[in-house]
Design brief:
mainly beta; Pectate Lyase C-like; Immunoglobulin-like; 3 domains; 14-stranded parallel sheet; 3 helices; 50 strands; poly(beta-D-mannuronate) lyase activity; signal; Secre_tail; Poly(Beta-D-mannuronate) lyase; EC 4.2.2.3
Length: about 575
């Protein structure tokens, strides 16, 4: 054989090796386990479209940032893991995506559906574009603690996935934080729906959607971010989200038709902002529940909370925003005193209780909130109390100023510290939420200066003379609350179809649509320096009202014949809502 021929043969062998290593389709569990065993950085393992039963994967591999190890479906949504299936990931830079978990049987509830640990923790690992659908144990197992996703390690991500029909004790996504090491996890663009409680709402703990931390390590910081998630028809316990660590952020989430509250149970220095809560008067529903120190709570919209329990009594832990008393010498799993917390520029609409200050879940909770700022909140048509002071705040820095209510009563003195009451005109309404209107007493009424208050709940800029409440009049933001029409479009399983997650996030940042809300004849769309391509506009019923290709990075669209209402604009793989008035 000549040297040239030998070289060609070797080239072919190398090419075949690379193909078999980097891009292989497997159709049996044995082949899958073999492919995982042989995987190296850059390997992509593709699962053949079919139903897989009792798949039990234990992955211990190291990828890199530029060459992760990927396990994916041949066709997203056409690979089904059933029976007693689970995935354990250990190592670094592993991506698991596109799989549906359904039809469970003979589950071992001690083993999570997906755990970011095998023989060691997983760091820089991603679970994306999956669906876990009613993957529950038997009735006899419903009080067993069965977690769907157990986070460990650092810098991990759960995104663009749907978690539907959880029943039984155990978080959907849980980070127990067994150590005090910072996590830097990101949980975003997920859909959490149709959880049902064991017994009545709040009969048992550990029925939340997301829990970050545990009481034992709660005084250490996690730096986890939970954003752009949609919670729908969700009922488990008082904590829809349970924060039990420090320096976490919760923003741009929508809670719709739910029971419970976003609860800062333990930990300090968290931020809760730009979230929408639509409780629909469900019993035992709240907005944000506060314990601990140094939290910032701003730009949240909370509507229709109902503090009644199923038995008709009133819960001390609910309300639009509930600030708890603390317990002297509190143990880590009890109630730390609220200190140095700012509750600023929130909008509370049609709740029974708007703001509840100094509540007592237990009679031993006798420490009043200290150095509490409650400022520039809009409280609209609350039926029981706009502001309830069960225990008055203490500390020289405590102040309540610049709050505005429309009708109803409150436990503060009207016309003191710019706290005012009006009888009408504070807010208007559309099909989605109540918003600030021309002539409102909230316009330019903000008091004080807050470095964190740079935009409003919709993402529009705050002016120097800023408005009271969560929204700035005509600021042009487009971060509207999620609805059912967003599932598989902007949140949840099926969202990430062709682009990488980094590409989608960049497009979301670059895509600009203005003016919002639009009251004129022209809608402007821009995509930085990228070509727009196909632009689609649909109404909330999913009907396509415009589809046009633009070979430019900017476009003007004639909307003068559009009816008033909310529409979805889709450019490439990114969708945003707009309101036309």
């Amino acid at each position: 054989m000549t040297i040239t021929k030998l070289s060609n043969v070797l080239t072919i062998i190398v090419l075949v090796f690379k193909l078999s290593t980097y891009g292989q389709v497997v159709s049996t569990t044995a082949a899958l386990e073999s492919a995982i065993s042989n995987a190296t950085a850059g390997t992509t393992i593709t699962l053949a479209d079919k139903t897989w039963s009792n798949v039990q994967l234990s992955i211990n591999k190291i990828g890199t940032e530029n060459e992760p190890i990927t396990i994916q479906a041949e066709t997203p949504g056409s690979v089904f893991f059933e029976g007693n299936s689970y995935v354990k990931m250990g190592g670094a830079y592993i991506i698991f995506k596109d799989v549906v978990f359904q039809n469970p049987s003979n589950l071992d509830t001690d083993i999570p559906v997906i755990e970011f640990k095998s023989s060691n923790d997983c760091n820089h690992c991603t679970v994306t574009n999956i669906q876990i659908d009613s993957y529950n144990g038997t009735t006899a197992q419903e009080e067993d603690t069965f977690k769907w996703i157990l986070l460990r390690g650092t810098n991990n991500e759960v995104s663009y996935s749907s978690f539907i029909g959880k029943h039984g004790v155990g978080s959907i996504i849980n980070d127990n934080r067994s150590s005090t090491e910072a996590n830097y996890h990101k949980i975003h663009h997920n859909y959490f729906a149709d959880r049902t409680p064991v017994g009545e709402i709040n009969d048992l703990n550990d029925q939340d959607a997301i829990r970050i931390g545990s009481s034992s390590t709660s005084l250490s910081d996690s730096y986890t971010e939970v954003y752009n998630n949609y919670f729908y028809n969700f009922s488990g316990e008082i904590e829809v989200i349970s924060n039990k660590s420090g320096k976490n952020k919760y923003y741009n989430n929508t809670f719709d038709d739910y029971q419970g509250a976003l609860t800062l149970r333990h930990g300090n220095g968290c931020e809760v902002y730009n979230n929408f809560f639509f409780a629909n008067k469900n019993v035992f529903s709240g907005g944000i529940r506060v314990m601990g120190e140094d939290h910032l709570i701003y730009n949240n919209y909370i509507e229709g909370v109902n503090s009644k329990k199923p038995d008709g009594s009133t819960s001390g832990g609910t309300g639009g925003i509930n600030v708890s008393n603390g317990k002297p010498d509190s143990a880590l799993n009890e109630y730390y005193q609220v200190k140095n917390v700012s509750i600023v520029n929130n909008t509370l609409v049609n709740c029974d209780y708007g703001l509840r200050i100094g509540t007592k879940i237990k009679s031993t909770n006798t420490l009043a909130p200290e150095n509490l700022i409650v400022a520039n909140n809009v409280i609209y048509e609350n039926t029981t109390k706009a502001i309830q002071l069960t225990t008055a705040p203490i500390g020289d820095a405590s102040i309540m100023e610049g709050n505005i209510k429309q009708n109803g009563s409150w436990d503060i003195t009207t016309d003191t510290n710019d706290n005012i009451s009006v009888s009408s005109g504070l807010l208007g309404s559309n099909a989605t939420f109540y918003y600030i209107v021309s002539g409102s007493a909230a316009i330019d009424a903000g008091i004080g200066s807050y470095a964190f208050l740079t935009t409003d709940i919709l993402g529009g800029p705050r002016s120097a003379s800023f408005d009271t409440g969560a929204e700035e009049l005509n600021a042009g933001g487009d971060m509207f609350p999620y609805s059912q029409s967003d599932i598989g479009v902007t949140v949840g399983f099926g969202t990430d179809k062709t682009l990488g997650l980094g590409d989608i996030i960049k497009l979301e940042q670059q895509l600009k649509i203005y003016p919002v809300p639009s009251q004129g004849a022209i809608l402007n769309i821009a995509l930085g320096n990228q070509t727009l391509g196909l632009v689609e506009i649909s109404d909330m019923a999913g009907r396509l009202v415009l589809a046009k290709i633009f070979n430019t990075s900017k476009a003007e669209i004639d909307i003068q014949n559009f009816k008033t209402g909310t529409y979805i604009v889709k450019v490439q793989e990114v969708s945003k809502k707009i309101v036309i008035k």
